[in-house]
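Here is my example:
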Amino acid sequence: MRAEDWDERYVGDRQWSAEPNRLIAALLADLPPGDAVDLAAGEGRHALWLAGLGWRVTAVDFSGAGLARGQEQPGADAVEWVRADVLGWAALPASLDLVLVAYLHVPQEDTRELLRRAVGWLRPGGRLLVLGHDVENVQSGVGGPQDPAILHSVERLAPVAALLDVDRLAQVPRETPAGTALDTLLWGRRPASGVGPRR
């Protein structure tokens, strides 16, 4: 979708809950705060939540309307808001403790390239958390994009996982009012020795 399409969506009602995704909150709540980026942050619900925990957060999205809605929320001054296409945006190498990519859906090759670059932005031991709709959700779940070409799977994220010390790479169910949705989770750390898994 284009930035203009998302701007139109954000002009209406809030697109998501103001609360963080439950799985994201469970994984991140006990981490010591550091430097983080929330890619495709939208209205900034995760960026605002992280900032409330003491993280120094940059929220990046190409929708000015989405970012504007986030900037209206309590605590917004603690977040750096950046309007940019995440496929072209970059952080300094080894400058972040967390890269969060929640429900960003673009063509597979663009996803892999972005996530490979994101691993390079992490300090040794820094965390990458990717969560999004699983390709099987189209047939077996509810909601979400219906184009399989832009959805995640364990197999599709495996090349990125190979660069990390992986804590979890799995299809995960998510309960919604409409039924069970299927997501893909990648949760791992940049190895202490740099990019590439420890042997």
Summary: Residues 116 and 160 are 6 Å apart (CA to CA). The chain is about 30% helix and 30% strand.
